[in-house]
Amino acid sequence: MKLVKEWFHQKTLKHQLIEVFKKAGLYLVHETRGGKVPIYPKIHAISEDDKRTQYVFTIPNGLNPQQLEKKWFCFQQILGTNIKIEGDIKKFVLNVYYSKVGLKPYLYSYSQMKSQLSQHRLPIPVGKDEFGNYLVYDMVEQPHLLIAGETGSGKSSMLRVILATLIQHMSAQKLQLYLGDLKRSEFHFLNKVEHVVGLYKNRNSLAASLLKLSRELEKRGNLLDETELSHIDEYNKTGNGPLPYIVVCIDEVALLHGDENVMDVLDDIAAAGRALGMFLILSMQRPDAEVLNSRVKSNLTVRMAFQSADKINSRIILGTEGAEAIDQPGEMLIKLKKLTRIQAPYLELEKAKKIIKPYQIEKKLELVSPEEPQQLFGVLDDETEG
């Protein structure tokens, strides 16, 4: 009797996954004399333990594996929101977790992730997965980051986590930060940090700074051409540097919508910045398809989606639904090669101030008057390289 129950249970689990394949359109159609026959992914194994149900399946030849990511929401609608898919091209492993045990809120700790940071040139901390493992990635390998989330979702804390970690891990000789704080609410506590070249609180001052960065981008490109090298890291090894990594972090980038000069520079950085050591971190409350052109967006290779207002917003940032179902602050879906559910650490503002205090110095930040950008664009357009 027990074997019969287990057999029926396995059939039920298999039927659920086949139902996902049907609803998501994850199948090929084979023409026969009797009509059209759907060819679904083949389920090879189903196993269970006290934490999860695991499926192993392969997709038929000719089915685009990217469709699994695009139809992520179908898996969640039928199997639950706490799922994870691993694999590529042909074979995949799907884990359906019973609870969010590994996704509990927790406080930021630099020491706990320090060993992983040292493995990367420009480490970006993300958070913990279902098993409590830290995820850290290298921005040099995965350039440019887009962060989106509703008020209270954990987006602001995530920005503090990333910047505080970079400041602690890297010297000001190896890292320069350009911060756009257009809502005047996120980066004020960083204005005396040695790494911070400028803190820009309005469109005009930020525009002038980005224009200078555009010139720096061109200068670095010329240096690589002259030395016949392909990456700024190679140039620094020649003894001519060092040229620091430059990270441009702009909160609420949607406020720049309509400024073609600014968007053109962001476009250039997104397209060429990786090899030249210049990177973008852009955040917005609600992702708008009209704010970032398709070229900029396609080069933002990493996306962090905290709680989104609706399915449309989730699709804009991730290419699939799912972020609208997030109900816990700090929880995100990150698109980094694959889609993964992560719990980010929480770093409150007062603690962040204490962390960065040792890195503060007396200095005058780069500031630009509201009128200067318009003058600069006209003057520098006429300049020639000497």
Automatic annotation (TrEMBL):
<dbReference type="InterPro" id="IPR025662">
    <property type="entry name" value="Sigma_54_int_dom_ATP-bd_1"/>
</dbReference>
<dbReference type="InterPro" id="IPR002543">
    <property type="entry name" value="FtsK_dom"/>
</dbReference>
<dbReference type="Pfam" id="PF01580">
    <property type="entry name" value="FtsK_SpoIIIE"/>
</dbReference>
<keyword id="KW-0132">Cell division</keyword>
<feature type="domain" description="FtsK">
    <location>
        <begin position="132"/>
        <end position="315"/>
    </location>
</feature>
<protein>
    <submittedName>
        <fullName>Cell division protein FtsK</fullName>
    </submittedName>
</protein>
<dbReference type="GO" id="GO:0016020">
    <property type="term" value="C:membrane"/>
</dbReference>
<feature type="binding site">
    <location>
        <begin position="149"/>
        <end position="156"/>
    </location>
    <ligand>
        <name>ATP</name>
    </ligand>
</feature>
<dbReference type="GO" id="GO:0003677">
    <property type="term" value="F:DNA binding"/>
</dbReference>
<dbReference type="GO" id="GO:0051301">
    <property type="term" value="P:cell division"/>
</dbReference>
<dbReference type="InterPro" id="IPR027417">
    <property type="entry name" value="P-loop_NTPase"/>
</dbReference>
<dbReference type="GO" id="GO:0005524">
    <property type="term" value="F:ATP binding"/>
</dbReference>
<dbReference type="InterPro" id="IPR050206">
    <property type="entry name" value="FtsK/SpoIIIE/SftA"/>
</dbReference>
<keyword id="KW-0067">ATP-binding</keyword>
<keyword id="KW-0131">Cell cycle</keyword>
<keyword id="KW-0547">Nucleotide-binding</keyword>
